[in-house]
Amino acid sequence: MCGRYTITVTLEELMTRYFTGDPSFDHYAPKFNAAPMQYIPAVIHDGKRNKLGQLRWGLLPSWSKEDKNAAKLINARSESLLEKASFKGLVSSRRCIIPADGFYDWQVKESGKQPLRITLRDGQLFSMAGLYDIWTDPSGHKIATCTIITTAANSLMEEIHDRMPVILGKDAEAQWLDRSNQDIPSLMKLLQPYDARQMLAYPVSSAVGNVRNDYQELINRAGADAG
């Protein structure tokens, strides 16, 4: 499961990294503890170019009768994407990327659950594969929502949790975003565990467990800010 993550770069860095024009939202601020049901930065392809916008985290299928249960669909298992009614119709046409520079997970120890932040070794931005949908309420108001796709844990993550978000390599990013790409078998092959050798995990403060906390010190190695 991927239930918290970080995106701490500037808006300009996001735009440069994903070759986008001006974003389709007015306000952007780094997130040190992004949580479900919040609006998060996401990248889609409009058929001509990448677009940076915001999606609410927690998928609300377009066919839903009301705006509820979205918090239950924050993740989608890659192995069953084509079997679930909420996801299968989106793979061909509504794929997105959720930019991140880290995600959190909790490792069970004898002393309790230890929160960890998992990043790339080089500290760079990475792309989590996602799906999005657009729901319209009875008054005609549209809500764009998303889910993050997960896969089996790699050798780093399996010591922490049995799942991890799908992280796309640079070549896979373009394939995943390309709206003209309708090759479902090839797209599904992109949803693999990321190379564990390129990742690292370190302990962070238990304060990350509270969704109301969202400040830079959350990403510090546990104990580092005290020394």
From TrEMBL:
Q: Report the Gene3D superfamilies cross-referenced here.
A: SOS response associated peptidase-like
Q: Does the keyword DNA-binding apply?
A: yes
List keywords of the entry alphabetically: Covalent protein-DNA linkage, DNA damage, DNA-binding, Hydrolase, Lyase, Protease
Per the UniProt entry, what species is this protein from, by scientific name?
Answer: Paenibacillus phytohabitans
Q: What is its EC number?
A: 3.4.-.-
Instruction: List the SUPFAM superfamilies hit by this protein, alphabetically.
Output: BB1717-like
- Specify the domain of life of the species encoding this protein: Bacteria
Name this protein carries in UniProt: Abasic site processing protein
The family this protein is said to belong to: Belongs to the SOS response-associated peptidase family.
Among Pfam families, the record links this protein to: SRAP
Q: What class of enzyme is it?
A: hydrolase
